[in-house]
Amino acid sequence: MTDTAPVAGTSVPLVEMRNIRLAFGGVHAVDDVSIELRAGEVLGLLGHNGAGKSTLIKILSGAYQMDSGEIRIDGNTARIESPRDARRYNIETIYQTLALADNLNASANLFLGRELITPLGFVDDAKMEAETRKIMARLNPNFKRLNEPVSALSGGQRQSVAIARAVYFNAKILIMDEPTAALGVHETQMVAELIDELKRQGLGIILISHDTREMMALCDRVCVMKNGQLVGTERVEDVTEDDILSMIILGKNPREAA
User: Fold this and answer.
1) Does pTM top 0.90 for this prediction?
2) Quick one: fold of 1-90+172-258?
């Protein structure tokens, strides 16, 4: 098992998950796993279905509570027992389903459940649209379809809305589950550009994906899990796609085996 390699020019990690364990009955879904994420870094999490990657991320997002281990945010011990706790630590999760209301437009989705209110107590549609235009100009200047229901948007545009919602509400740590699943080449590139922009803005991003080629293109480092355990964490510049596939399939780090 390799040590987590720090990214040059950074100090205290945004996130440290240390010796995390969670069992369901007698099955160790996550077994003594440690990872870290730094500001301005994209960290990939790879593994077959059942490897434990989604369970690990659900612990960070507050959906599951770990049996043992420690989570530190900005160097301080964090208590995350619910999604609300996670949001308090500026952790936002974008699931593959995106959790968008198809009949509402981008502005209404961005502020869904957190609507802006006028002094008289009415929903401030004009301000919400203005704020949506500002955040979209920062993330995806080509996005112009603010007043259409999101059901009419392409997959990449829907991802833009979900990402904008997270960033507007001050996400510092963004978890993205299969962000390009079922997207075409152009839309995948759109999402890749969004991720690159978020990275430039200093967010820490965790990507979950089965696509090794995509992970090699988008990520700074990749963590591979198998059977609930961490096989290894590697900088993408130090390994090949075949190395990563070997870690996923065999559960062994090829450099250690050499």
Assistant:
1) no
2) Rossmann fold (3.40.50)
